[in-house]
Structure formats: C-alpha cells, structure tokens
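Posting for a labmate who doesn't have an account.
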Amino acid sequence: MTSYQRILVPIDGSPTSTRGLDEAIGVAKLTGASLRLLHVMDELEFVSGFESGASYAKEVVPKLRRRAALVLEAGRKRAEAAAVAVDTLLVECFARRTCEIVCEEALAWKADLIVAGTHGRRGVRRMMLGSDAEQIARTAPVPILLVRAPEDQIAEPAAAADGRASTTAAAKAVAAV
C-alpha cells in the first residue's frame, strides 16, 4: 500500500471542500503526511462589465484576496488543531481553469495524493455547472480521492445565463470581507 506523505487539498471555503479537507486530515493522521491547502482565486470571477477596470482592481480584487486569505487560514487552523503539518498556497489567476492549476501544483509540489470535495452532480446540473473535481480526476498526475458531501449539506446554485454557477453566495461572502 502506498504511504501518502504529501497531500494536496484544493479548498474554497464551501461545506463540500471542508468535507474534503476533513478527509485529507484523517488520511494525513494515519500516514504522517503533510498537507498543502490550495485556494485558486480567479480575478475575473465577479466581472460584470459594468465596473471600470481600475475600480475592479482597486475594490473587488483586494476583497477577493482577503476572502482567500480567510479561507486558507480557516483550513490551516483546522489541520493544525488535528496536529497535522500544513502549509497554504494562494494562486491568483486570470480566467484559467481550477483543474489545470491543481494539477500543475500537484506536480510542482510533488504531491502523492489530491483530496478534493465534490458535489456529485449528475445529468443537466453537471453539464450546466461543470465539475472542477471531475476535471481534476480526469487529468490528475497523481491519485485523487473525491469526497462527496452528504445530500443535506449540498446547496445547488442556480445556473447563470452563461452556463456558469451563480456567484450570488460567493459575491455576498466577498462583499462581507
């Protein structure tokens, strides 16, 4: 059996990613592994077209960074509370797919395993909303453990007109920062 020593955990602060983090913590405790928590911040996530580039860069992007820092800090504290070695990494990107960044980081950090939460969407919801976890599983250079959240913890976002998940909840979280 493979002994995992370096576990990469993409997190976004959602209940689903927290469940993935908890599973990664459990595996790390069993194997003595260290965790790297990865948060991908897409700087274009909230572009509406109505704001100027300068105001977006001055107001929205700093809020995105603060929220990203809070997500990573909460994850780090969770792992440390379980006595698991952990570090964090924030990757800011410009309209890149999360799955690409996760797979690149798995190679760069020499991860033995990726643990990611998944919503387990099927059918039209998966087609409309996409699945970062599914794309990571298809392209991962190392083994991946997908952890599905219980049905009662999954809140399905509405699809936006462009096929992307609605960002209303995420926008509210950023605005609160």
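Reply:
Got it, the structure tokens are right above this. The beta strands are 6-10, 34-42, 86-93, 113-118, 144-148.
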